[in-house]
Every structure is written in structure tokens, then in C-alpha cells.
């Protein structure tokens, strides 16, 4: 097995060298089959998450609205039972409300430090722009409120199949508008994972276009900043990431469902193609096995090139969104401590 | 092909799910064969580097001192002819000298900004602790002097097979001692790539143990902070990285050659096992295809957990050390601009 892999490597190098001698620029290369042990370089709690099998959901490709709704319900039913225990363990209260005409959940930790009393985080949940409606979208917000100690407002934005683009963005901007009317904008941060990380950035693009002020900081986690199959780790981490598995099935299908015929490179769909000059300080997060590692580092570079203070953290061995995979894992607590420190440094009081 | 890969993914998910139902914790998983196109998300100059075939050098395993020396000579002969043109293009002068009894190269850019006049960078070259003796080690230092505009002193440290551990470290610390006697320590930075990035950190560990002051900042690029096969991307990016290819051949062989019987987890060999509290600000760099991406992010997390100001940059699509792969690539210039800004912020004048 070992010898065979080495033979493949040798042959690949030889073939590439011969190809390079003949053609001006060799193109794609083949990565061999590899065995990926669960790494020793992470905590036991994170090892369990990394050892999990891929959920078959991400290999599905719903063909019509009914199939999408069945998938959404399945995910909803899987998330909901965990929430009461999570709220209790982290001492967090969740209350439905309306803000800017949009349904939201107001999430309040048991105790809020004095310096966070007049600060608020706007949360945009993940789930490929189609999963986690209603209270199911509060999972990440409960973690942030409980582990970082902030007031959080989580937006229950509309989603396809019934409400494709720009419904989600309209809702996010409406709540943002209400928040920056109520709080000094520098006291507001926006955050979210995956689709929510991308929506964090497109919300700022739209807010700016509408003349709204920028918030004090943002924390996009492994954001889907490019809905096309461009980012390199969509290829290199295909079959390596055990959260999403591959771009080629549900991820692509949900991108097309959300875009509803619009060009996937529209900056309000794929903010990597937008203009991020003047953005507030940003903390971005990914993992070495993350299918969206490239999405994350491309956005980090783009922000830096635009002169924005942007910091990057990449977690060892983690696939997509595993930095919020289990609140008992030390990595998950450390993630929230990093974000809390970053926001504390940049938000107004 | 596409259908086959998906079938494999489906089967893998199914098998994992079945295994999970039976066993307490599923272990390793298989990553399928993947075709990796050269990404569209990098510059044309970087695309050329990413499209290069793996150099067969990294698949070799020299069996004795003579075979090692032949390999060292081959690499030396490949690097040397490029240096005169590089020095000229970047307007950099290189002069051999001695410092603390150790041979060094003093590298001076044509013009040095006023604020950098009394600052100096100590450079520790890469090459798996065995390659690039003499002037061949100045490549990275020429880039840094020319593109970031600093005075650089590059250490021609002793290497195996004739001089295994701790010769290189002794030499690096001797030059560091001389530099912090001549300059205010806060005006000194230490940097290097790969083996040189690791040596940057072990030099600080030894310097501290010997009562020397810390420098103003460090810039370890894709540092080999763990000589054992522990880091997750040694597995996930095996056969993906086109600079190093795999840990299993020359990388492991050179680690054992350098360690010379010492435990590979000794912190002076693998500084990820050391105590980095009190370290100066650090900027760390890697790429999404880098075999040492995990080495880099593990070190970043370790520094952050120790309360050190440490920033991370990860470059899209790049394998090991490709951020210094071609001074014409915009990514390579941007890398040096980032490091220059970081050092400017942290070094004394």
C-alpha cells in the first residue's frame, strides 16, 4: 500500500516532468488516494468531530420545491432537539421578536460584562441559504452569546425555495438598519458562518450602497464568498471535508436555487467579486480540511489588499464550521475567546 | 469519471455511517483520487508555479553522507546561476562576512528608508536543514532586502551530514548574540522559510535560555515546527503539494539526519513542543496546498494561546514556500509588503 502510493507519486512526477518538457504549461494534476488518520494534534472532543462520517444530506440534489422542503424539514428536526440543552448549558435565553419588520430571535446571556452592555451582534445563520429557518437558525448565536458574552440578534431571514435572492439580503439589511438606528453603529458587529458569513459581507455591501454606516467589526466564519466552483480547496479538500463533502451536489444545487437565474458572480451573491474598501475590521475563520478554506483565505487577502484590518485563524484538522462543532471542545471555546477579544478591541462602548 | 467519484463518495459515506453505528469511533477515512486544476483565483505568474511538476529531489532518500552531498551539490548548482540576475533585478548587494565567529552574508538593498536605517533582519535559510550552504542560502534574503527594503544578515549555518544538530542552532544563536549586542534588540527581527522558519523559533528558545533579550518581531514562513509525522496536512496535502510532495521520503530522511539520534519531539528540534510565552509579535505564512499548512496553523494557535500577538496569512493554491516562488508574481510582492508593514509596526527605530 505504502509502496504503491510512492510508486504513484514517482510516476506522477515523471509524467509531469515529461509533460512539462513537451507542453508549455502542464495543467491539472492528479492527487492520489490517501488515508487520512484522525490527527493527534487536536483535542479528544475535536477528534470525535473529525472522525464523524459525512452526513448524506450534503450529497443530495433536490429536484423540486417539495424535495427541498423535505430536506429542510429533516435538518430542522435534527437541530431542534439539541437547542434546549444548549441554551441551558450556556445560560442563554432566546426570545422571538420583530425588528425592521423582520422576525428575529433576541438572544441574551445570563450575564453580560459592563463593557458589552451597550454592544450588540447581528447574527446571520448558515445552512447553504436554504436550511435552518426559525429557531433552528439560532444555534451559532446561542454559542456566541454564551461563550463570548454578547447580546445577539439572530435574523430569521426568508429563504428559497419560496423566497430566493434577494429576500435574505433584504431581511438582513432591514434588521441592520434598525440596529444602527438604535445603537451607535460602532457598537454593532455582524457575524455568521458559511452562508451567514457571506451574507455578513453582502449585507455590508448593500448597507453601504444604501448610505448606511459601517458596523464596528465583522466575524465571517468560513464564508461562501464565491458561489462558483473557483476556489482551489473546492478541489483539494473534495472528499476530505466531512461536513460538506463536495461542491458538486447540494452546495451547487443550493447556490443555483438561491441565485434564481442571476449570475453567480454578482457581488451580492459572491462578495469576493465586490468592492470591500472601507470595510470595518474583520476576523475570518476556517480549518485545514475546510472545503471553503480557499473562500476564506481569498476573502482575507482581498480585505488586506483593500487596506482593511483583517485577521485570519485556521484550525488544525477541521472541516467546514467545526470551530463551532461542540461547545465542550477546547478549540470551540478558544475560537469564541478570540472573537470576543477581537470585537472588544474594535467595537465602541 | 464524475459519476464514479460520486459513487465512491456515496459509498464512503454509507460505509462510514455503518461503521459509526457499530464501533465507538470511526478512525481514518480515505480521500478519493482527485483532479486538481490550476486555480483561476491566482495570478498568471503564480499559476505557472502551481502548474510546475514536483521536483524528483524530494522523492529521494540518500543512504549515506556521499549521497547526501551529491544531492546538496545538485540543488546548489540549480540555485546559484539565478542569483546574479536576482540581485541585479532587485538592486541588492551581497557581501560575505563573519559575525560571532560564524560566516554570514550581509545583504544591502540599493536604498533603505530612513526608518529602517537602524533596523536589521537576521535570516535563516530553508532547505530541510541540509540544502543551500554558502551563497545558495541567500535567495530568500535577497528577496526580503529588495522587496521589503531592510538590511539583512543571512547566516551560513553548518549542516549535516558533517554537522548535525545542534551546529545550526549554535551558529544561529551566535550571530543573534552578536546582532543584539550591536543593535537595540527591539530593532532586530528574525525570519526564514521552512527549516529556517523553525530555526527562527528554536533560536529564540535557546536565546531566552541563555538570557539573551527577545527580538522585536519574527516572520517564520511555513515553518517545520514538528519533525514528526503529526500535522494533519502532511496527510491531506500529500501528493497535492508540488514543492515537497510527501513527508515520507526526503523530508523524513533529512529530519533524522539532522536530529542525529535525538528525540524528534525535543523542543529545540520541533518547537511546537516548546514554551513560547513571552515571544515577540510574529507573522506566519503558508498556502492552501502547503504540506506544512498544519505546521503553520498549529504554531499560530500555540502563539495565540500563549498570549503572543501572532498573525497568519495563507495564500490561495500555493504549495510549500511558493509565496517566495517568483519575485515577479504579485502575490510574492504582496507577501513582502505585508511582512514589511508588520515589521515596521513592531520594530524599534
Automatic annotation (TrEMBL), chains A, B:
Pfam name, any one: Abhydrolase_3
GO molecular function, one term: triacylglycerol lipase activity
Keyword presence, RNA-binding: no
Keyword Signal: yes
Signal sequence, renumbered to the chain: 1-21
Lineage of the species this protein comes from: Bacteria, Pseudomonadati, Pseudomonadota, Betaproteobacteria, Burkholderiales
The protein's name: Alpha/beta hydrolase
Domain called Alpha/beta hydrolase fold-3: residue spans: 121-321
PANTHER family referenced in this protein's UniProt entry, alphabetically: AB HYDROLASE SUPERFAMILY PROTEIN C4A8.06C (PTHR48081), ACETYL-HYDROLASE LIPR-RELATED (PTHR48081:SF30)
UniProt entry keywords in alphabetical sequence: Hydrolase, Signal
Similarity section: Belongs to the 'GDXG' lipolytic enzyme family.
Amino acid at each position: 500500500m505504502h509502496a504503491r502510493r510512492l510508486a504513484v507519486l514517482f510516476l506522477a512526477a515523471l509524467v509531469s516532468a515529461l509533460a512539462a518538457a513537451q507542453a508549455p504549461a502542464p495543467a491539472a494534476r492528479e492527487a492520489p488516494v490517501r488515508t487520512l488518520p484522525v490527527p493527534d494534534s487536536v483535542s479528544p472532543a475535536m477528534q470525535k468531530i473529525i472522525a464523524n462520517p459525512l452526513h448524506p444530506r450534503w450529497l443530495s440534489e433536490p429536484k423540486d420545491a417539495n424535495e427541498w422542503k423535505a430536506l429542510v424539514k429533516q435538518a430542522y428536526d435534527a437541530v431542534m432537539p439539541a437547542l434546549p440543552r444548549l441554551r441551558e448549558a450556556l445560560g442563554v435565553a432566546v426570545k422571538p421578536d420583530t425588528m425592521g419588520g423582520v422576525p428575529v430571535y433576541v438572544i441574551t446571556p445570563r450575564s453580560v460584562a459592563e463593557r458589552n452592555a451597550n454592544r450588540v451582534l447581528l447574527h446571520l445563520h448558515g445552512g447553504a441559504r436554504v436550511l435552518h429557518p426559525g429557531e433552528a437558525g439560532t444555534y451559532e448565536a446561542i454559542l456566541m452569546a454564551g461563550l463570548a458574552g454578547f447580546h445577539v440578534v439572530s435574523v430569521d431571514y426568508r429563504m428559497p425555495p419560496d423566497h430566493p435572492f434577494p429576500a435574505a439580503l433584504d431581511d438582513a439589511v432591514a434588521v441592520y438598519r434598525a440596529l444602527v438606528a438604535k445603537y451607535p453603529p460602532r457598537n454593532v458587529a455582524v457575524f455568521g458562518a458559511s452562508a451567514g458569513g457571506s451574507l455578513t459581507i453582502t449585507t455590508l455591501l448593500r448597507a453601504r450602497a444604501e448610505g448606511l454606516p459601517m458596523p464596528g467589526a465583522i466575524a465571517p466564519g468560513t464564508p461562501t464568498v464565491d458561489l462558483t466552483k473557483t476556489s482551489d480547496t473546492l478541489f483539494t479538500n473534495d472528499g476530505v471535508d466531512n461536513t460538506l463533502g463536495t461542491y458538486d451536489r447540494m452546495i451547487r444545487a443550493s447556490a443555483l436555487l438561491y441565485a434564481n437565474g442571476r449570475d453567480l458572480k454578482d457581488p451580492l451573491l459572491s462578495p469576493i467579486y465586490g468592492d470591500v474598501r472601507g470595510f470595518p475590521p474583520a476576523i475570518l475563520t476556517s480549518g485545514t480540511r475546510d472545503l471553503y478554506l480557499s473562500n476564506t483565505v481569498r476573502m482575507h487577502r482581498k480585505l488586506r489588499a483593500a487596506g482593511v484590518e483583517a485577521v485570519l485563524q485556521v484550525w488544525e484538522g477541521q472541516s467546514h464550521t467545526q470551530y463551532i462543532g461542540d461547545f465542550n471542545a477546547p478549540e470551540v471555546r478558544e475560537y469564541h475567546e478570540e472573537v470576543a477579544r477581537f470585537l472588544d478591541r474594535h467595537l465602541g462602548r
